[in-house]
Amino acid sequence: MCGRLNVTDSPGVQALCEQLDINLWPQAGMRFSRFIRATDRVSVVFEQDDGQRVMKNAIWWLLLDKHNEGQASRFRPSRYTSFNTRYDKLNTPRSAGYHAYRHQRCVIPAAGFGETLQNGQQKIYHDLTVDEHDSLAMGGLYRQWQGYDETGRPFTEYSCSVVTLPPHPSLRSIHTKASPLMLSQHDGSLALWLDRATTAPQALHALLRPALRHHFTATPIDRPSSWQPAGPSFRIPADQN
């Protein structure tokens, strides 16, 4: 999966947030943008120990470096690429996602995401979106980092990554390396991923197979920053159960 998300204030995203029964929202509000890149902030939802679901705005880069400026702490993306976490690293001890996979899973409500295909020297970009009234939840991991602000008060910074799986056969024409973990309210996958009481990797193993749980519209674009169509859109249907 390439490092860009589409998180618009669509009816589907609104409905998903309502259905998640989020008890605490970030003070700055949910982060909306048609073009969220890796290292930007993105809104994530996770369960606390008491079972309540909260939303936080997190840096889309799981590993952060802490820098002190006077008595204030600043967190910046690490030099180690970590906006995605590969499925085959989740059970590798001492890997960045090992502990988070068991105890700090999250979802990222989104309207869609972008992919890039390298064709020789040419890059071919596609935007994929679900239906306007549908809801997409990207399965991810989050981490918490402790620091101090300019007044010496402690604060918590959040970071996140998207879990990536092997390429899905239906997406190979637009991206050949990996596909994101996509979850749904309708088949129980979203609830299972968020369940804080689930810590055994075996219970989550079935979710780490590539699956399209939504119908997508794929649109070729000239480049991600301008989002100008470069060809006709086409339909990618959800997997048949």
Overview of the structural elements:
It is a single chain. The chain has 241 residues and is mainly β. Helices cover 9% and strands 43% of the residues. It has helices spanning 11-19, 98-103, 189-194; strands at 4-7, 22-24, 33-37, 41-47, 53-60, 64-69, 72-77, 84-86, 105-110, 112-119, 122-130, 136-148, 154-165, 179-180, 182-183, 216-221, 234-236. The mean pLDDT is 93.
**Structural domain tally:** 1
Oligomer: single chain
Number of helices: 3
Can you tell me the CATH architecture?
Alpha-Beta Complex
Give the topology, please.
Layout: E1 4-7, H1 11-19, E2 22-24, E3 33-37, E4 41-47, E5 53-60, E6 64-69, E7 72-77, E8 84-86, H2 98-103, E9 105-110, E10 112-119, E11 122-130, E12 136-148, E13 154-165, E14 179-180, E15 182-183, H3 189-194, E16 216-221, E17 234-236
Parallel strand pairs: 2-5, 5-13, 8-13
Antiparallel strand pairs: 1-3, 1-10, 4-5, 6-7, 9-12, 10-11, 11-16, 12-13, 12-15, 13-14, 16-17
Quick overview:
The chain is mainly β. It contains three helices and 17 strands. Strand 4 and strand 5 form a beta hairpin.
